[in-house]
Amino acid sequence: MTNISFRNFGTLPVPCEWMLQPEIETLPLGHHKAKRPGVIYVMDEEKIRKRTWYKFRLDTDCEAYKRGVWKNWHATGWQDFEIGHAWISATYEDFDHPEFDGEKARVTWFVEFSHDGEPERYTGDPEGEFWGWIVKDVSVMHAFERRPRDKTPITYEYTCKHSNGSPVKFQMTGNGEYDSEKKAERKVDEDPFLKKWHQNHYFGGYSLVREEVKNESN
Asked: How far apart are CA 7 and CA 129, in angstroms?
C-alpha cells in the first residue's frame, strides 16, 4: 500500500520490476473551471462526462516521463465529502529498450481517497486523519510479452544525406537489428558531413548486407 498526500509528489507502484515507475503530483481538491493541459482528471463513474475533485499530473522530471513509456491515462471513480475511490489505468509501452523487443501492458491502480476534517490536522500530527491518496492495489494485463532481443551479429546498409543534400550510403554492423540501427543513428549524429533523411526519421531506406548464423545452443 502506498500513501501520497494531496498537493504532494509520489511514486505509483508497478506490478513488474522491469517497468519504470510513474511519479505523479497529486493536485488539491476542487474543480478547475476549465480543463488544464497535462492534468489527468478522475471522471465520475456514474456520469462519465463529470469530473470529480480528484486530479493529478505526471512529474516531468522523472525518467518514466522523459522516456514517454506511460501513455493513454484514464481514471474513473466516485467522490463523497469525506472519502472517494478510483480506478486509474495507463498503458506501458516501450519498443526502444536495448535488451528487449516489445513491451506493452495495461496497468490499473485502485486508489482510495481520504479527505475528512482539515488537512492541517494531520501535518506533523500523528493523531490527525490522513488527507490524500491510498494506493491499495495494482494489476497488469499484458498485450505483448517482453522478449529478449536477437543479438546475432548483422550488417545493414543505410541511406541518409550528405551535408550537401545528396544521398549517401554506409554500412553498419551491430549485435542484432536494433543495435545496428542505433549505431547508425549515432554515426549520423556525430559525423558533421551526415544528416538525417528527414527531420522525423534518420534514413531514407536500409537493406540487409549479411547476417551471421544464429547460435541455437542452450
From this structure: 16
